[in-house]
């Protein structure tokens, strides 16, 4: 009799267990059906019946929801950034396009060789600016959509920077800038993408040519597991740089959108590229001395 009562209790307990389990599974299935893509952010699955396997299932479902919401936020941010990029660049592209159109019309109206050369020089400069902007836009969209691939290899930071600066020797000379490299500096090797690191350095050089005066100093150092390079220069009189905004998208020293020298994307893109190569890029402004520091993994 005792055994019978025990078995009866176990059977009743099993029936209740199965009942509550099936009930909870039905409620969970209803939650799955009602939780659409437009559900309020933060919505999660839950159960009242505390069964180990069921709780594990709910935890997995909630983890999937977390991943989905995170990806949804990233996609939305990428779309907003892309729209902002299109709007900003569309505005910036008008200036060189208008210049090209205007000077082409002037070319048609003159037979003076000197004026023709002058107009062609302006057109050539505007075309170069258009190419620079379209390259930046291409980089920007690939970064925002996480489509830019990286080929990280061992590189000499010193040689890479020196080669790029020497390529701009005539431009520095024309701008009255003196470049000071370290004397007998130790060679620093870092892990980076050669093409993209060159792009970053060239963006920095363009920034130097626009805003620096006098002398540009380049310093190298090792900090923990990073190779570090710092570019230091005085800025032109009257320049008003907001140091907290220099890496913002479309930031230029000019507060208007009529700055024909810069789209305001170079440093923003450079910082993103360096971060995607597991490094860091920072800027400082002390009185009239501006500096940019790049850190990349040391090898």
UniProtKB/TrEMBL annotation:
GO terms for cellular component: plasma membrane. Residues 51-81 form a coiled coil. This is histidine kinase. Gene3D superfamilies: 1.10.287.130, Histidine kinase-like ATPase, C-terminal domain. The keyword Transmembrane applies. CDD domains: HisKA. Keywords: ATP-binding, Cell membrane, Coiled coil, Kinase, Membrane, Nucleotide-binding, Phosphoprotein, Transferase, Transmembrane, Transmembrane helix, Two-component regulatory system. It holds the Pfam family HisKA. It is an enzyme of class 2 (transferase). It is a multi-pass membrane protein. Its EC number is 2.7.13.3. It catalyses: ATP + protein L-histidine = ADP + protein N-phospho-L-histidine. InterPro entries: HATPase_C_sf, HATPase_dom, His_kinase_dom, HisK_dim/P_dom, HisK_dim/P_sf, HssS/ArlS-like. GO terms for molecular function: ATP binding; phosphorelay sensor kinase activity. Residues 88-299 form the Histidine kinase domain. It comes from the Bacteria. It is found in: Cell membrane. Signal peptide: none annotated.
């Amino acid at each position: 009799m005792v055994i019978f009562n025990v078995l009866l209790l176990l059977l009743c307990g099993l029936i209740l267990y199965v009942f509550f389990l099936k009930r909870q599974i039905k409620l969970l299935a209803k939650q799955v059906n009602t939780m659409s893509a437009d559900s309020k952010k933060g919505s999660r699955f839950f159960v009242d019946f505390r069964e180990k396997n069921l709780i594990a299932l709910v935890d997995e479902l909630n983890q999937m929801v977390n991943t989905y919401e995170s990806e949804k936020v990233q996609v939305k941010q990428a779309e907003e950034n892309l729209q902002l990029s299109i709007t900003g660049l569309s505005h910036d592209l008008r200036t060189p396009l208008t210049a090209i159109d205007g000077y082409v019309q002037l070319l048609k109206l003159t037979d003076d060789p000197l004026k023709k050369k002058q107009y062609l020089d302006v057109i050539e400069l505007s075309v170069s600016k258009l190419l620079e902007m379209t390259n930046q836009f291409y980089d920007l969209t690939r970064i925002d959509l996480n489509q830019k691939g990286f080929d990280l290899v061992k590189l000499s930071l010193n040689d890479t920077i020196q080669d790029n600066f020497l390529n701009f020797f005539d431009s520095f000379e024309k701008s009255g800038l003196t470049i000071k490299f370290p004397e007998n500096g130790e060679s620093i090797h870092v892990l980076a993408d050669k093409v993209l690191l060159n792009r970053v350095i060239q963006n920095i050089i363009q920034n130097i040519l626009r805003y620096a005066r006098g002398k540009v100093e380049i310093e190298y150092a090792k900090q923990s597991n990073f190779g570090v390079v710092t570019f230091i220069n005085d800025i032109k009189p009257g320049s008003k740089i907001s140091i907290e905004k220099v890496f913002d998208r479309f930031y230029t020293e000019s507060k208007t959108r009529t700055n024909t020298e810069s789209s305001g994307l170079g440093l923003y893109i450079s910082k993103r590229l360096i971060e995607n190569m597991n490094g860091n890029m920072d800027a400082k402004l002390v009185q009239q001395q501006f500096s940019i520091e790049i850190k990349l993994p040391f090898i």
